[in-house]
């Protein structure tokens, strides 16, 4: 069962981050930026979204470090976006940033409510629905962390006064190092929060 859960977790993680990136690209397209569309990124083909480190190497490292018993995490290639094409120059970047986590939270709510209202489904379905809910909650929460290049940083920078320009530049310069540190030492908190929200939405305890 542990091996099956690991396999399903990897698949669900991949599709969760893929939907996240497609949401960014779609909103950008509707705001007037066709960059993601021309790059072929508005597709459900997972091969178009795989990032060598974030989609393959990092999940494998986490599997090895936790002996397959910890949460699996990673990311896809960011969707290419040109904010200068946005019709809404003031809020366009904010709208695109919010789109990704919003997609994940929407998926989580849908599958969490399916568990709440159909608890009599076969256990296999409940496990898969639970994985979908938890991983989408985790991915949505994770992306709201205000560390570049995560969506939370774009949201923060939209409202950050100009006097904090040096802070913005420092975060952009060292963001990837801070992010990797956070992944290895803060990921458990993200998943603990996700499990709490899962139980709140589904009305059921996590069964795996």
From TrEMBL:
Segments traversing the membrane: 56-76, 96-118, 124-145, 174-198
GO cellular component: plasma membrane
Recorded GO MF terms: metal ion binding; metallopeptidase activity
Compartmental location: Cell membrane
Highest taxon, organism lineage: Bacteria
Major location (coarse): membrane
Residue span(s) of domain Peptidase M50: 124-182
GO biological process: proteolysis
Keywords, ordered alphabetically: Cell membrane, Hydrolase, Membrane, Metal-binding, Metalloprotease, Protease, Transmembrane, Transmembrane helix, Zinc
Cofactor(s) needed by this chain: Zn(2+)
Membrane topology of this protein: Multi-pass membrane protein
Pfam families: Peptidase_M50
Family of this protein: Belongs to the peptidase M50B family.
Protein name per Swiss-Prot or TrEMBL: Site-2 protease family protein
Native source organism of the sequence: Candidatus Nealsonbacteria bacterium CG11_big_fil_rev_8_21_14_0_20_35_11
């Amino acid at each position: 069962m542990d091996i099956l859960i690991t396999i399903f977790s990897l698949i669900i993680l991949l599709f969760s981050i893929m939907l996240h990136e497609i949401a960014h690209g779609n909103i950008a397209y509707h705001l007037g930026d066709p960059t993601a569309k021309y790059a072929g990124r508005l597709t459900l083909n997972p091969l178009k979204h795989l990032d060598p480190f974030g989609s393959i190497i990092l999940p494998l490292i986490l599997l090895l470090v936790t002996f397959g018993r910890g949460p699996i995490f990673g990311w896809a290639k960011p969707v290419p976006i040109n904010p200068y094409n946005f019709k809404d120059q003031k809020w366009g970047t904010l709208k695109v940033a919010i789109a990704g986590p919003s997609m994940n939270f929407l998926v989580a709510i849908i599958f969490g409510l399916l568990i709440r209202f159909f608890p009599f489904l076969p256990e296999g379905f409940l496990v898969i629905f639970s994985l979908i809910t938890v991983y989408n909650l985790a991915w949505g929460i994770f992306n709201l962390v205000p560390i570049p290049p995560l969506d939370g940083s774009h949201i923060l920078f939209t409202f950050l006064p100009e006097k904090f320009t040096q802070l913005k530049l420092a975060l952009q310069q060292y963001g990837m190092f801070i992010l990797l540190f956070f992944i290895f030492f803060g990921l458990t908190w993200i998943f603990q929060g996700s499990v709490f929200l899962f139980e709140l939405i589904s009305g059921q305890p996590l069964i795996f």
